[in-house]
Specification:
By secondary structure, the protein is mainly alpha-helical. The chain has two domains: 5-48, Glutaredoxin; 58-112, no CATH class. 47% of the residues lie in helices and 7% in strands. It is built from four helices and two strands. The protein has helices spanning 13-16, 37-48, 58-88, 95-103, and strands spanning 26-29, 32-35. The structure holds glutathione (GSH). Glutathione is lined by residues 10, 22-25, 36-38.
């Protein structure tokens, strides 16, 4: 389903029924509705993947969760927010703060995370 963010379709009642936060993405998998990118990834891994997609053992599960947290934290508040400001001219957000965070996730520290490969 297409959602025209520029026209505010994500804030209309029909979309808010799918995601009360009025945000994309939302997955509709044959009637199973899952909002939130990380929740979607967990759903898809459990529904269609196997242990290699989302391990059940403590260390493997923690490694996956760590990457999901990176996506929801520094990536979301750095490059993703910078894009929001530049592409959608989002008001009330400061480009300087996002630019600062844009650079540090791309620095040397990702190599310390399990499963990091370039
Ligand atoms: N935690 C959410 C964040 C989603 C998000 O920020 N989506 C942005 C587009 S990438 C959005 O819909 N922004 C519109 C708004 O917040 O009003 C996720 O990971 O799915």
């Amino acid at each position: 389903m297409e959602v025209d963010l520029r026209k505010g379709a994500h804030k209309q009642p029909d979309f808010l029924q799918l995601n009360t936060f009025g945000q994309v993405p939302v997955l509709d998998d044959n009637g199973t509705v899952i909002p939130d990118s990380n929740a979607i990834l967990v759903y898809l891994a459990r529904r269609y993947g196997g242990e290699s997609w989302l391990p059940g053992d403590p260390v493997g599960a923690a490694a996956v969760q760590r990457w999901l947290s990176v996506a929801a934290g520094p990536i979301a508040f750095g490059p993703a927010r910078a894009r929001l400001i530049m592409v959608f001219a989002a008001n009330g957000l400061r480009i300087e703060a996002s630019e600062r965070q844009f650079h540090w996730p791309l620095g040397p520290w990702p190599e310390a995370l399990p499963g990091f490969e370039l």
